[in-house]
Amino acid sequence: MRGHPMKKHYALIALAGVLWGMLTLVFKALDAAGITALQAVLVRNGIAAVLLWAALALRKPSALRLKKPSHLLYFVGTGMVSLAFFSACYYTCIARAGVGVAALLLYTAPAFVMLLSAPLFREKLTGRKLFALAMTVLGCGLVTGALTGGLSITPAALLFGLGSGFGYALYTIFGKFALRDYDSLTITAYTVLFAALGVLPFCRPGEAVAILCSSPSLLLTGAASAVLCTIVPYLAYTKGLTTVEGGRASIIASVEPVVAAVIGYVFFDEGMPLSKLLGMALVLGAILLLNLPQKSKI
After folding, report:
1. Domain locations in the chain as residue ranges
2. What's the chain's average pLDDT?
């Protein structure tokens, strides 16, 4: 028996969140080799662009054709305005306020998506969505440790953190617009290209390439980040957006910090206190809440 298309698209969005959560492994390896955070963004998106564009040029060149030159603005939005901008803001916030605070502010993204989707796509702000959003933000705060370590943040760090959440949210918004004219393959191909171009002037690309080419294992890590943590999740997430509301999709993808926390516990001996377990339960509970039949009421 074939599954319901909506449920399949929920699963695709959750898969994207899981694969994005695995970026922790990649960034740890690249950081140990001396590659900076923004250089890592260039590596994953640059390699992804080369691989995806080469594959499509050989197998499906029609996917690279634009219906109108003005449609490049879709991908300036998904690539530069979203991916490149939120990455720059996120890593600046980490430098100013630490990982926990930065991660918590990044996951204000579902709130921005809901607020923008209401007027742009006529998505209703239901009680269930707002309750799930509250569970997600609280859960992410507990998972990242931002709510248990005593928050101390400057106004500048707060602005960078909120900027990262806003930029992260914009992928869903621009992606929804792009889906009116293109499929997930085209959107992902142009997104990774423009994301790489967006960070190119700020990250000393020659240095990153030299470090990456110094070791076969680093090249393999870079390729894995491009395929498993970039191409596949963006294809999956964008495909999911064809039927799932932006607000719901953004919350479901918030499984990402849960996966990152589990990876930190398993591979890097990071602690798993009760607060973190509670946060993980809240995030997963929010995702389950959004998957309840519509007739269920909160």
Report:
1. 5-290
2. 88
